[in-house]
Amino acid sequence: MTGGPLIDGLQYAKWSEKIFRQLREGGVDAVHVTITYHENFRETVHNIEQWNRWFETYPDLIFQGRTGSDVELARQTGRTAIFFGSQNPSCMEDDIGLVEILHTLGLRFMQLTYNNQSLLASGCYESEDTGITRMGREVIAEMNRVGLVVDMSHSGERSTLEAVEHSSRPIAITHANPASWHTALRNKSETVLRALSQSGGMLGFSVYPHHLKGGNACRLQDFCEMIARTADLMGVHQIGIGTDLCQDQPDSVVEWMRVGRWTKSIDYGEGSAAAPGFPDMPDWFSDNRHFNRISEGLKAVGMTSEEVNAVMGENWLRFFETSFGGSADQTRKVPRAAE
Description:
Layout: E1 7-11, H1 17-25, E2 30-36, H2 41-57, E3 62-64, H3 69-77, E4 80-86, H4 97-104, E5 107-111, H5 134-146, E6 149-151, H6 157-166, E7 172-173, H7 190-198, E8 202-205, H8 220-234, E9 239-241, H9 252-259, H10 291-300, H11 305-323
Parallel strand pairs: 1-2, 2-4, 3-4, 4-5, 5-6, 7-8, 8-9
Helix pairs in contact: 8-10, 10-11
């Protein structure tokens, strides 16, 4: 394993004691977990209640992360810090006031779209990307104020570029790969990657097969060479891992992810009509015990130990430390007593 922190920028597993123990076996210090997709605010709170029970039941394995310093606490205590995120803005409904409340409850990432048009922006599956909406600009400003990261992983190109431009803080694309390496609606153009890098944002590389060149037959060497080439494009300090690992989820969950409540028909998304469920993972990564294979693969393609440490967690840690707190010049200040 690497000498620095090990952080995964996105997972959506069917969580269990088995997976929590695998996190520890793999030395994963922190992970951004999707706690909500299409759920409304109350349903999202219900999901947080379930996480509270897991934190209560497995305190020796996991705890809720809220700030970058919690990653160091995880390393010191041999546990994994869990950071909450949403893959759609459904959790804030149409109420900008819920942005701060969700942050107070622990949400640290929120995607502005999940494939489709939302109240905030256009998704990557829309035929026309109309960019960030009026409400979207207001919500981004509020997310910047409270320390909730703008995530554009499932958003269209124009919307993503406008989010980079409009956000006063660096944004993230937590789980995607370069479209020049593998063409997929979810993967990102070099134009987006350059803009992301120049603004100080972060890209998390995905091992989800639909994002990989060759699907689940993708070789570890090809994946690691892609990371090295992207480091040349973006700079080695703006990239990390965001596996998009959906371990142990039943195929029915794919339907929920893609369909939610917006249609009565089946949307096969990045899969095919013949295989609408989860694809098999590549043989070199199927659970949290396999991150060491990625770090060794990066060394094998010529990255230095320092560069590998940066990609495997140090870059995400720096991003966490500067992104999760309230904006210093915008947070509420206690008024001084009248003289």
